[in-house]
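Q: Here's a chain of 430 amino acids. Please give me its 3D structure as tokens.
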Amino acid sequence: MQRKTFARLIAATAVAFGIAPLGVSAQAQTEISFFYPVAVGGSIAKYIDGLAADFTKDNPGIKVNPIYAGSYQDTIVKALTAHKSGTPPVTSVLLSTDMFTLIDEDAIVPIDNFVKTTDDKAWLGSFYKAFMLNSQTGGKTWGVPFQRSTIVLYYNKELFKAAGLDPSKGPATWAEMADYAKKLTTKDASGKVTQYGVQIPSSGFPYWLFQALAIENDAVLANDAGNAVKFDDPKVIEALQYWVDLAKNGTHPAGIVEWGTTPKDFFEKKVAMMWTTTGNLTNVKNNAKFDFGVAMLPAAKRKGSPTGGGNFYIFKKAAPAQQEAAFKFIKWVTQPERAARWSIETGYVATSEAAYATDTLRRYGRDFPAAVVARDQLPFAVAEFSTHDNQRVTKALNDGLQAALTGTKTPAQAMQDAQKEADRLLRSYK
């Protein structure tokens, strides 16, 4: 008895001084590797580092290690390579459209596996339905919406005024946008265009920008099962013809328009209207030296935009304790107040009504109405284009779009060729 009491006394004394005595082990931390799609450094990486540190303060038994993996494309390649080698990340933010690919690779587990309590169920049911379209399939939830977006139209209010247009609103229809673009296009004495009316990027994510045009013309590019596409639908070809005609008419830059430089062109007044992600909103707010507006995309037969952006996924080969810890982190980081602050920090759409009900986002939306345009567009949004073998099917579409925009193929021929390639790739998934 005396020996046991003495041993307990030594242990208690050691703990008081922060020393782990022999035979007394400190509680081990569960470490989570977290692949995030951004280059090393920059404000977003610092913000993610801060979130990881704050989570560990709240949950001392878990340590989140963010790993900045480059672009979305870089990140999924690295994540799947690590998965095949047996050392995948525990969790990663990847495109919502990567869902079918990740399932086909048997790389992820359903989020439903971790949803156990009434609070868990309420949390999972709180996300906007438009964002869940690319997060669920086969009756299961595979991804959790995090940095999600829609495409919106940004416009220079000063240039609108100079062209005799109402600066309080953007164009509501395709016909209006074509008309506005004509009025906003300016040339120098030699006839060279110095300012284009509108710019829709055709590099980086051409399929995504084009899907908006297809939706607005009441066309669906892919079925819900992700095993069939309709690139050669006459309504799809008509939508591509509209895009091609903007350049032919001289109101839109010809050829391939770069995704990355489009905001810079807008800041430098080389273009009066641009289509890009709402995820660029904070960038535009911080860098535009003029009054700008944000509007929903113009309608043809209907309004609409695809959703976009990234979801959290949990990887199958991670240890059960790591998977549970990752779920805890994902649930923590997507709580309304944090989702609200993330939206303000980045410009991405907050992923739940509860986030927009916070005082933080209510005040921000009141003082900066542009911040709620993407949210208000969600009732007209549809799932971002996604199929099995998604990267190769998307490449077939992108190649077709760029062939039409550079004039090497007609819109009809470009989409017919893309359809044939997609049918070949998807044959085994029927």
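Q: Can you summarize the key feature?
A: The two ends are 73 Å apart (CA to CA).
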